[in-house]
Amino acid sequence: MLLFAMGFLLVIFQPSTGQFPKVCANTQNLLRKECCPPWDGDGSPCGELSNRGSCQNILLSQAPLGPQFPFSGVDDREDWPSVFYNRTCKCEGNFMGFNCGECKFGFSGLNCTERRLRTRRNIFQLTTAEKNKFLAYLNLAKNIPSQDYVIATGTYTQMKNGSNPMFRNINVYDLFVWMHYYASRDTLLGGSNVWRDIDFAHEAPGFLPWHRVFLLMWEREIQKITGDENFTIPYWDWRDAEDCVVCTDEYMGGRHPTNPNLLSPASFFSSWQVICTRSEEYNSQQTLCNATSEGPILRNPGNNDKSRTPRLPSSAEVEFCLSLTQYESEPMDKMANYSFRNTLEGFADPRTAISNISQSGLHNALHIYMNGSMSQVQGSANDPVFVLHHAFVDSIFERWLRRHRPMLEVYPAANAPIGHNRENYMVPFIPLYRNGEFFKSSRELGYDYEYLQEPALGSFQEFLIPYLEQARQIWTWLVGAAVIGAIITALLTGLILVCRKKRQRTSSEIQPLLIEREDYNNMCYQSNF
């Protein structure tokens, strides 16, 4: 009750960042296919009078997609967000937001010129006061309505192509639960038909950038509704953990004393209601999740299918994953081998990097281990452990980026599953973000991880790692080249000796006028090797 009261004392109504802006969720904007709201600072669309941005046509990627989705024109998420809007605000400089009223991640100040670097910390390194504040913030987000965003409760066709808007208000926490559901839901094909092999946030290259944006937006929302600009998401380092150490009433909720599938009544998370968990019901009715409450959070950690996930991930498995040099590999989905992304996501064996969808490793292992709301993809964000887990997954992604220092071109530009090419906009975010924009160091986005902030020596070692790794990969070629070089050197040395002996035998008395000494020497050295 104390944490609950703390939450409501922190209520501050400010703009938020999420999905469909309320000001654009109406017949006029949908029929015009335009979402360019005015910025409060000057009253002009996109803050154009203040040079913050302007209303422009959306430029969609024309790069070919992979074969996983064989349809066209049947899903509102195709070529996001063009089914709903084809004109949105394009912000200039460091400005961001659906009306260019905010700063890009990593910037602050009235004109968004001040650099900021915040640090995400291990939840067990927080003081009691800091931990209680984090829990209060979570509860506040669950109980305060989003001021600027709504969710869609029907498809564009069900909205009669915009003439019958179908939207609903939602609280800040559930807004993000709904976005995670919407990005991963099945395609409704009409009747009772659906297409399940589609996901705009998982099972493809965009998995890590998508969740990076998701956490950044979630973090910013908490900063706004609390007024705490220094807030960062804590992470749970689950490497080598023997059980769910955050699953206590002191942290994310303990086990119910009589029903192991529920949370302890001593935790206020036990009163939380989940949404968007009944995918089969939505599919059979050909409807979208409308954020209706569907019961309490379910969690029974460790009582999962041991044949699929025998334990939580180990440090050795994480280190092996980090050693993989390819970010992605064909076919760029859950069948990809030797792919860092697929191995970290958990569809490839964390000891061999070979795809094995009968097992769940690393990221997926944690979801399965929790054995409840977190174990079903579409509704997994209902459990607040989700943000702790994905913050740590993002830190592993960050370690890989720092170790291998990939160019942007490493992220696939074409032939990835629908929505996952480098220049595709991420579903269902408005303002718009491309996948490739978040394939870079977290420091450039304004945040770091406490356990990655190493002293200068460590940074130097981290700098050397990619070069040492490259040397290891080409070691056999280097040895081969050295052997060949030695043979060539020996042959040239022999040739030189032969030439010198011949020169000594040919005196100037034998052929004094046929050839000059300098020209003769040049004849013996035909190679510039």
UniProtKB/TrEMBL annotation:
EC number(s) given by UniProt: 1.14.18.1
Subcellular localization, as worded in the UniProt entry: Melanosome membrane
GO molecular-function term, one example from the UniProt record: metal ion binding
UniProt GO BP: melanin biosynthetic process; pigmentation
Pfam families (UniProt xref): Tyrosinase
Topology within the bilayer: Single-pass type I membrane protein
Signal peptide: 1-18
Top EC group: oxidoreductase
Keywords attached to this entry: Copper, Glycoprotein, Melanin biosynthesis, Membrane, Metal-binding, Monooxygenase, Oxidoreductase, Signal, Transmembrane, Transmembrane helix
Domain Tyrosinase copper-binding: 202-219, 383-394
Gene Ontology cellular-component annotations: melanosome membrane
Cofactors demanded by this protein: Cu(2+)
PROSITE patterns reported in the protein's UniProt record: TYROSINASE_1 (PS00497), TYROSINASE_2 (PS00498)
Entry's transmembrane regions: 474-498
Family: Belongs to the tyrosinase family.
Protein's UniProt name: Tyrosinase
Species of the source: Caloenas nicobarica (Nicobar pigeon)
Source species taxonomy: Eukaryota, Metazoa, Chordata, Craniata, Vertebrata
